[in-house]
Amino acid sequence: MNALFKVYNKLCVLFCKIKYIIYFNIFLNVLLINYLYYKVWNVLNNNLALALNYTIKLNGCVIIKLIQWLNTNLELLLINSHNYDFLSKLFSRYYEDCPIHQLKYTKDLFLKEFGVEFDDYFELDTSFSIKSGSVAQVYKGLIKANANTNTDANVNPNAATVAIKVVHPEIEYQLICPVYFVKLYTYLVTNFKCLYKYDIILDLNAFFSNLKKQINMENEYKNNEYFYNTYCNNNIILIPKPLMKSKNFLVMEFVEGEQFEKLDVSDYKKQIIISFMSIFMKNTFIYGKYVHCDLHQANWKIYKEINKNNDETNFNDETDFNYKIIIYDFGYVVENTINDTLKNICYCLDTNNIQGLGNLLFDNIKNINNDTSNISFKEDFIARYKKHNVMAYPYSDSLIATAINFCYINGYKLNNDLLDFFVSVILLNKHFNKYLFLNYDETSYDDDVYCKYVYDTNMFYMSICEKYDVFSGIKEFIYATYINNPYFSKRIKYTNTYFNSLKNTSVTSSLNHNAIDI
């Protein structure tokens, strides 16, 4: 009987492998047909695009994740190229619409990995819509008070509301063909001159290497635990506590939040929240052991709690609440091995130091000889990079986008670590530009005005860190790097008017930084 069972399992594995080999080949052929049609007619065909959409779903989570990754990166490619234009138009049509796998699969897998019946441990919230992403789906549930606690879980046996994240089925088989295809493709386009023009610049091998980590919930638990321990005493950043783990399961504290753009609060309140998001990113760049590289809008939300100092019984005004930033999904987290480089990049971005950025960029490109002895090539590189740039917002992610774009145009490949960090900031670009720079005029650049704006902004950052007793390291960094820096202090006569002229916000006309409330 055991022998038959083993044979059956092997046949199932073989079937899955063959199935996804066929599906992947169908996907490649339909993609090629879409490309040829676009090349001839210079327009996408709706029926062909729908057929491609169907083949993407056939291939499951891995191709969906690849499409999402390409979408993020293609937004940065401001390139006048037929191939990139085709990919951008085609994949911009594809929105995350990931299938939900059966609950029976989840329950059977839980029993296999924890040795406990799912229904003996959890009571699912049936009113909660299952959230399905490209890698996993999430249930909301309650840990039963009489649950068997022999699962080595970091959880109180008393009832607790949790989020149960489980990896989609068959993902290891879905990886096989794309990984081998990318290895073959990379070898061909980097070793044969006649195929150089087909190198898409993006590092697909790095993508699949990161994806293999993302589908391991034990790895995500480790990342989640690091961020929880780092920010558990922070009054602004809220990290759900990880509770249980296995290869395919991650159970964590359930923390509900609202999407930032849907918050019914003033722009001034949103500016403070986004200021803290900016500070959080700098903190992870400069002092963090790990950096979260996937902060799209679904992976961070706003937690609203009743202000404990308020004696009112009816809570309607935004001042009746405290607001915290919840960070979710710690699958795409990378180790920070370049803290000093990122610290220098932050300063160069803040001061619009294009020369400094060019130097840092040159030192972090992996497909050129960036030996310091090659001075003439480096000078030419920086000169071309400076010509590619324009004056921009302080702290502007458009400078990052320009840096990435410059590399793509010239065929330079950034080190994976730096590219991951750049993309992580770009994901927040629209919020930074919308809420942090309302009263900055970028149309006419003036060096002294620019310096004062940077100085005022950092004074504001220091004041909110001081008020909420958070990010002490960043506060010291800001003081040493900006406030006590002669580069700024000798250029300006300080009177802080930051946030004092915001549109439709009367409260800012007489802003007292000691009375700032989030």
From TrEMBL:
Signal peptide region = none
Q: Does the keyword Transmembrane helix apply?
A: yes
Q: Which InterPro entries match?
A: ABC1_dom, ADCK_kinase, Kinase-like_dom_sf
Q: Name one Pfam family in it.
A: ABC1
TM ranges: 20-38
Q: Which residues form the ABC1 atypical kinase-like domain?
A: 97-337
Does this UniProt record's set of keywords contain Transmembrane?
Answer: yes
Report keywords, A-Z: Membrane, Transmembrane, Transmembrane helix
By what name is this protein known?
Answer: ABC1 atypical kinase-like domain-containing protein
**Native source organism of the sequence:** viral metagenome
